[in-house]
Fold these 2 entries.
Entry 1:
Amino acid sequence: MKALLLLCCFLASLLLSGQADTEDVNEEAPLRDRSHIEKTLMLNEEKPADDYSAVLQRLRKIYHTSIKPLEQSYKYNELRQHEITDGEITSKPMVLFLGPWSVGKSTMINYLLGLEDTRYQLYTGAEPTTSEFTVLMHGPKLKTIEGIVMAADSARSFSPLEKFGQNFLEKLIGIEVPHKLLERVTFVDTPGIIENRKQQERGYPFNDVCQWFIDRADLIFVVFDPTKLDVGLELEMLFRQLKGRESQIRIILNKADNLATQMLMRVYGALFWSLAPLINVTEPPRVYVSSFWPQDYKPDTHRELFLKEEISLLEDLNQVIENRLENKIAFIRQHAIRVRIHALLVDRYLQTYKDKMTFFSDGELVFKDIVEDPDKFYIFKTILAKTNVSKFDLPNREAYKDFFGINPISNFKLLSQQCSYMGGCFLEKIERAITQELPSLLGSLGLGKNPGAPNCDKTGCGEIPKNRYKKH
């Protein structure tokens, strides 16, 4: 019994000494200087915040008066599943963090915001820790917002997420933090990709949710670390969803100071080799190599290189913040172009259907023939020949089989019939927004004019609608 007591005392002393050693190591671990973050992101500058309310109000008015009527009339949202809300128009730039589990996404957010060892910090660890989609926003005090509340608030840009079901809303969480950077940008942390997990096990459509955030993100950080370079089915699906968004993607090789120079070169090459089949672009994506956490770089590593890479990434982030309005206007204009093309196609389907119908025709069989083989009736070629549409902007033909499967062609009117005396024609209004109003609003930002004051010389805003049927 006495020997057992002595053994317990010995083990307890070892445990206590080990904890003391760990505490000493943690206390002695040097922290990295953060001055380059404040300087690059201009967090210490006491300049007055720019008032963009006027230009955002003007942009919202253009959308509601010139784009949304045609969008609703031809049910564009049921084709692309992309509904623009007022909250999305006025929202801050969104930065999305994607990547495998435990590569340092949450730690990177903590580092950029300086949240380490505070009650605001995101939980991190070597195991998969983030199981929710976490949205970090600015607020006067620390506040946690449940996903169901975020989806119910129409003033925020997250109300469309309700369509993914209650199981997903339980995995969505918002955190308001009083931080200066979050006054200008919103961070979204995502669950890590686990290749041996099936989609059904998450309880919600993970890829569809990721696509929703990808479509709205201004900058996408895809984070890797040297131990997780393999590409599985879920990561491959993610890069398919990123297709067409290459300009927003920034690939990050994190925890680079854990490797010696020779091994770092091999890992860098292996990362390119893994991603090459997934990113089908002529110019390879930029890969930022550094270590994004508060501890200082390991000794005998390329600290100057890592610091320059980090500053370069921060400059990209700052550029997105500075170009917030330009990107928002360009996004609305791109959306308007897609709505116009969709309306032209539906109008062409409808016109072809009316031309082919006779008194003895079976309407259902006639339209089925048109939808099954639109090239036989020159649907898409006619749009390219008679309208200013690029063939690279045309949607997939197969998508219209599903679209007309739930929306009978008889529910639509021809574009020529979408006109009124007071409101004008839907098609003319959206074309004026694309060619005049939105470019004029964008140009006023570059020239330093008051963006809230529309240029009525070019747009004709405020004019009394002309009577198209009055003889002059």
Entry 2:
Amino acid sequence: MNLILKILSYLYLCAAVQCVHQVAWLPCQFIDEHVFVNNEGHTETQLIHREAMLQFGQKGDTPVNPHALTFLITGSKLDLRRYVEGVEAEQLECELRRYSTEGMHVRWPVMGAQEYNHWFCCTLRHANGLFTVTGFLRRPSDQSPPGQQDYRKWPAIEDREILTTTVAMVIKTQSPSVRAGLGSQQKLHCQFAVDHKGPNVTVEWHWQHRGERTRLFSHTSRTGQTQGSGVGLRSLAGGDASYSLPFTKMSNEGTYICSVSVIPLFVSLDISLHIEEPPRVSLNVGPTLSLQEGGEQKVACEAESYYPLDVEIVWHVQDPAVSGQRVGAPLPKVLQNVLLSSHKHNQDKTYSLTAFFYLQASLRDSGRQFTCSVSHQSLRVPIKKSFILTVEEPISWMFYLTVGTIVVTLVVVLYVLLRYLHSANKQSVQKKPY
């Protein structure tokens, strides 16, 4: 019984702390802004990169780095670390910026919140592009904002100052960049959370490509009004705003923008969708090509229906006897007499390309292996197609003369034999009595 209680207690503690390794602090770049009017009367913004620390703890904690500006994130309903679980601190890139509400003042509806707030935006990116997390940090204040252009009068922040904040809203995508094949199903991930119940939230999706911008989906929780499709409303109620593409087409390529608004906050994440279609590779000859010495054959390697445009086709030749050797084998020789056709534009907007050469049959090349290697960004390794050349010696004129003589002789003998048989048959008919 005591063992069971200990196990239950352990599980409870694990649930309380989420039973994961959580970072206590992160080094960050605080990109501060200095907005001023230049000598020509134009407004300019000077970006100032400052060393900062993102520290998780309680109000009054000692800063990890007392020489740096510290953003101390204290407990709230939202914990930024939950959105980067399983990732080491060295894999995260942290950026902090001030956030302007453009003079919009709304009392943030959480217990104990003061009338006014200063806002900061914290973005955590995985170093390998696996996800992007953006959180809004709220710093309570008893001073009203300076007005619509609050960025002109940012309150000064000292280098060693400690800013005590809480996380008010978070948005995350696990697919900042998506590579999709034609006809595939794709789910563009976007999730969000707010630190209070029943927020008045607006979620939108836009598609942007080559200057064109189209709204795909919009939902406002206050009115319940929904426009467009692609996002499940039941999932949206739980903070999952992911957008679904049931059948990826070439026209779907572009940047998808997931935006979430809870007044006075607005945040968006860009998700790039790249179409990648691997080539189909074929040769115009079989696995073995037989030619007579001195003969010529056009050999073509075609890469079909690939996207995007860039593809590399290389022809190699190698003696198959040494191709299987792992040590000391000579490298395949690249053929230099290869010609490329022009790119063919297919109806589905993919491309095709042919690399060909004219093979002059020589006995010294008999038994050699010719390989076409096709590389494309959609392929992890190149596609290779090969054939083996067999060259036969040409039949000499003496052979033809001998064969011709034999044929003529046979014809003469056959003619004489037929004449003899005809004559014998005629004589036998004349001797027959009536």
